[in-house]
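[retry 2/3] diguanylate cyclase: previous attempt timed out, resubmitting with same input.
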Amino acid sequence: MRHSTAWVIFMSIFIADRVSGQLSRFLSELVAITTFTVATPDGWRRLDPVQSSFRLACLIASIAAVICVVAILTMAQLDLVSDLSNGLTIGLVLSTTISFTVGFLICWLNARQMQLLIQSHERFAQLSQTDALTGLHNRLGLYSNCVHLSTPYCVAFIDIDHFKSVNDRYGHLAGDMVISSVAKTIREGFDEAAHVARMGGEEFVVVHTLAPDRFLEQCEGVRENIATTTVHFQDLQISTTISIGVALRGNREIFEKVMHNADMALYEAKRSGRNRICSSGAKGGRQIIA
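[retry 2/3] diguanylate cyclase: success.
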């Protein structure tokens, strides 16, 4: 009985030491996870692990520790353990089981946290390339998708005519409504393969690998739709038009050069009276299309 009491005390201390060590590592890992932060459009945000997972992990670890101690005490009282070596063996088995259980939970929580981090990063990357008002790509999104294009493509630079007067006359909320309406019409005027972006203010860009004639037809369709569409804002009906400059990619021209040619064609369209399309040729010549 003395031996039984001695080894029970020894094993209790041993198991308690092992359990406390594992729990300390477990809690330190959780602290490291819960203090991780990531940048979002709204500022720095703490990535908290799933609360239910945290509570479940602590509960399982605590239950495992209690079961370990109770099991040894029970076996000792029932004389199921006859000597110290058997007690040590059982203690090691139970301690190893706890170690694996806690280690598995730590790995699972880390994997879960990494998944949340990746999802947050992907969401942040998407937001950084998206225009908040229209849902189109912004300048960064356009360049990310188009700057490395190597196949022939066309670029349309689009500007809303006299947009400043809309803001001055009806207010900025009405101006935002006009921008949203024009953006929707532009997006619907081209197929899904087209890259459509709002560059800022009232300027938009469309990049497409369509044949030039087909691309000009779609640009003309967009111009006509906007010219014949009235934007409804509160009790107001606002009409607007757009000017479009089109450029074709020549021999190995970089994206910035094609964008510049389209921009110059846009200025020519506005200088020629607005509400029309001007195309820039491969040699820099510009022609009014419609």
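[retry 2/3] diguanylate cyclase: Residues 84-128 form the longest helix (45 residues).
[retry 2/3] clearing retry counter.
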